Amino acid sequence: MSLSNLDLAHVSQLIAVLLAAGIVAGFVAGLFGIGGGFVVVPALLLTFSVFNVESDIIAHLAIGTSLATIIVTSSRSVHAHNKRGAVDFRVIRDWAPWLVVGAVFGIIIARYMDGRSLKWIFSIGVFLMGVHFIAPVLQPKTAITKEMPSGPLLAGIATFLGAFSALLGIGGGTIAVLVMTACGRPIHQAVATAAGFGVLIAVPGAIGFAILGLGEPGLPFGSIGYVNVIAVLAITAMSFLTAPLGARAAHSLNAVALKRVFGIYLVATSAIVLYNSFTS
Description:
The protein has ten helices and two strands; from the N terminus they run ααααααααββαα. With 280 residues, it is an all-alpha fold.
């Protein structure tokens, strides 16, 4: 991709899209304990397509870049929540090895998938998460147990979460919050701790996608493998400012209505990405 073929107004519009995505991603990360990938990946798919990036690599590039932004958004979210004493670092420590293993599995799977297949997986995953936000049928009314998963159950859940999240370019906070609240943890603690899961998934995920794309022809300017540094800087600059605002809102607002609105956005995004997979 050459910037010389684009006028200043066009470039400015694209940067504005990335900055706006960062604003929303940061706030969403703090509010719901997710990494913001559900916002960032669709924005990147649109942006890279406007820049005429090869359709075969757009999905890999969007997911890898999203994971790199999640390192910052989730870290910022954890820091903001920890100021309120809401992060359970013992849970993060117990889950860490399996989340990393899962992220590596996700990268290996992505290695053998084409861009259209990745878009399908993203679309399905986003649709399911959107339905959950609109009508949280998976969320138990009361805690199922008072103990967090351990042993093989912990290994299985965390490995799946790491792989699923790495494939979608997300932080995995939604599933993590489901598990923690089902185990009797307060919602605020679950959201705060889930943000830490995002960091553990995003670091190996971003590194893996960067390595995976090294030497790939047709990558846009500023890319290290499947991670575009320019997009990462634009998005994280804004999300760094707004993640604490989301964390503050999570501790002071009833987020039911916000979750439903976000769920509608996810379902619409799922449909758009699915349609795009057949037209590009």
